[in-house]
């Protein structure tokens, strides 16, 4: 069975550019979570969706970050404009239902120069 | 508010030693889940175990065992006869399992870096 799929796996961009991270949850899972991992702050929940609806985006750092889930099999996390402090590993996870175990994708390593 | 504390930042052992990773949590929820995840050097987060707050039975899976003590709010993880492949960062996490917007939100500890030397 396919796990959570994330793309790209690595992204290097310059400050000010738009970055889009993509996630495909496990088929049948109806909850999707975006996390960010940094050395300083550890693993932080940014936003999560239940049945494609954003439930809690209180972890989104600022307006430069936005996330969408247009259907049950796809979500994006966008950073516009990107800044060097956004450099981190971004994980997507899914669960079914939302209180159950979350399974994580391989992550996207983002470096903003 | 929820909090998970993994007091051991780094642990170093020699292969075949037993090692215990400590996890202490704080929550006001009456029902919750506790988790352990493993993050090997390759970077992915691998689910190891989930424990419901109703179930205080200890669990053993091969060389891994978990000791859940609600009275001390602890959920410790022991690796018996450690191996080099166990080298990773291990995260303890907590999630409420009742309704509301917090339902399903994982709060992670800071992680324990385990290095197993040959």
Question: What does this protein look like?
Answer:
The complex is a heterodimer of chains A (113) and B (118). With 113 residues, chain A is mostly beta strands. In chain A, strands 2, 4, 5, 6, 9, 10 and 11 form a 7-stranded mixed sheet that branches. A 4-stranded antiparallel sheet of chain A has the order 1-3-8-7, with no helix packed on it. In chain A, strand 7 and strand 8 form a beta hairpin. Chain A is globular, with a radius of gyration of 13 Å. Chain B is mainly β and 118 residues long. Helix content of chain B is 0%, strand content 52%. Chain B contains no helices and 12 strands. The radius of gyration of chain B is 14 Å and the shape is globular. The mean pLDDT of chain B is 92. At the A-B interface, strand 5, strand 9 and strand 10 of A face strand 5, strand 6 and strand 10 of B.
Brief summary of the model shown:
The complex is a heterodimer of chains A (113) and B (118). By secondary structure, chain A is mainly beta.
Element order of chain B: H for helix, E for strand: EEEEEEEEEEEE
Largest interface: A-B, 25 and 23 residues
Radius of gyration of chain A: 13 Å
The structure class of chain A reads mainly beta
Report the end-to-end length of chain A measured between terminal Cα atoms. Answer: 36 Å
Instruction: Note the beta-strand portion of chain B.
Output: over 45%
Low-confidence regions of chain B? none
The largest β sheet of chain A comes out as: 7 strands, mixed
